[in-house]
Amino acid sequence: MKKNIALLGSTGSIGVQTLEVIVAHPDLFNIEVLTANNNSALLIEQAKIFKPNTVIIANNHKYHEVNNALADLGIKVYSGAESIEQIVASESIDVVLTALVGYSGLKPTISAIKSGKKIALANKETLVVAGDLITKLCAEYKAEIYPVDSEHSAIFQCLVGEGANPIEKIYLTASGGPFRGKKLEELKLITKKQALKHPNWVMGSKITIDSATLMNKGLEVIEAKWLFNLKKEQIEVVVHPQSIIHSAVQFEDGSIKAQMGIPDMKLPIQYALGFPQRLKNNFKRFNFLDYPSLTFEKPDIKTFRNLDLAYRAMDRGGNSACVLNAANEIAVEAFLNDKIGFLNMSDLIDNCLEKITFVKSPTLEDYVETDQQTRILAKKLL
Predict the structure, then answer these.
(1) Is residue 276 part of a domain?
(2) Each residue of 195-252: pLDDT tens digit?
(3) In total, how many domains does the chain have?
(4) Bridge-partner residues for 56, per DSSP?
(5) ω into residue 276 within 30 of 0, thus cis?
(6) Residue 361 has pLDDT above 70, yes or no
(7) Distances (CA, A) of 172 to 110, 124, 155, 271, 324
(8) CB–CB of 167/143 below 8 Å?
(9) How far is residue 318's CA from residue 363's CA, in Å, rounded to a whole number?
């Protein structure tokens, strides 16, 4: 029986690769819903190919363009963020793959959880912003989350069959980004063109900048805490420039299980959609002889401060990670628009963490308020 998929964020990097996975397995998956934020042209193109039941464009101003283009196909077209929150509760949907960028993924994911859906989560910010709330809701509504991030998928794969064996610690691997080994002086004049050239992965602009600053790894540390119920001292980041070992789990007997493979996001996407089955594919295979040397090193948190800021936010708890995420989203946007320097992004985030009011046990309303207040402050500080 085919799984009906709601793909939130179909026009981004993860969304496009998800559709490639679905094309390769037409007997297993069917696209029920496609959503996009602004890219109406690609959304229309995708809808004509996959013919989903429903299409949503978050930007209300583009509703008529999308609706007119799809009018003859019998596809329901809606607009606005609230429509995305509502559609994920549809009975016809089996799996919700959340590939929305940043904070925008929070409310639709909560809606999907409350509907008891299986969730393939590529939007790490949902757990970063509101991990405590999300984990409690998953337990209450018996919703299951399957991680799509390559590192968390690796951990998840290593834990299959290990239910009775406690985790001693996990190793999250990081490529180190395009500026690995560089010192502060060298980073002062970094341009967005340089920062957007990731050495191993093809990704969207936001996550590529986050990888260059090591904030992506910081967000992944916080996500791992909630996904796998870990403490700060159980999560270690290791720089692994080849990006072959995607992450590893160490058990209480000292054994380590690692998941390896060529860097390709389609593998964790396919694993999340197909779980518990491993689906046959024609992806490029890893050859040990092509990589005679796999290297590892400690991350430089004095130069790349964002990773340290993330650990601090996680350690403090409350709404701190929500502040971290919102400030970072404003910082990255400003950097991409040439309004702020590469190193100044960390300064902006640090300032917001110091100045935004701390809430020890936040509700959803507190998270929403924190996000809004942090964005306002961050823009003033630019």
Answers:
(1) no
(2) 998 777 667 789 899 999 999 999 999 999 999 999 999 999 999 999 999 999 999 9
(3) 3
(4) 35, 78
(5) yes
(6) yes
(7) 26, 14, 8, 19, 20
(8) no
(9) 10
Count of beta carbons in the 10 Å neighbourhood of residue 336: 16
In whole angstroms, what is the distance from residue 382 CA to residue 304 CA? 20
To the nearest 10°, the Cα dihedral for 100, 105, 109, 112?
A: -60
The whole-angstrom separation of Cα 245 and Cα 155 is 11
Q: Are residues 135 and 195 in the same domain?
A: no
Among 146, 158, 366, 142, CA closest to 261: 158
CATH number reported for the structural domain that contains residue 336 in this entry: 1.10.1740.10
Q: Minimal CA–CA distance to 317: which of 229, 234, 235, 222?
A: 222
Beta pairing class for 3-8 and 29-36 = parallel
Do 44 and 182 fall within a single domain? no
Same domain for 208 and 290, yes or no, is yes
Q: Which two tokens stand for residue 41?
A: 């042209």
Which residues constitute the domain of residue 93?
3-147
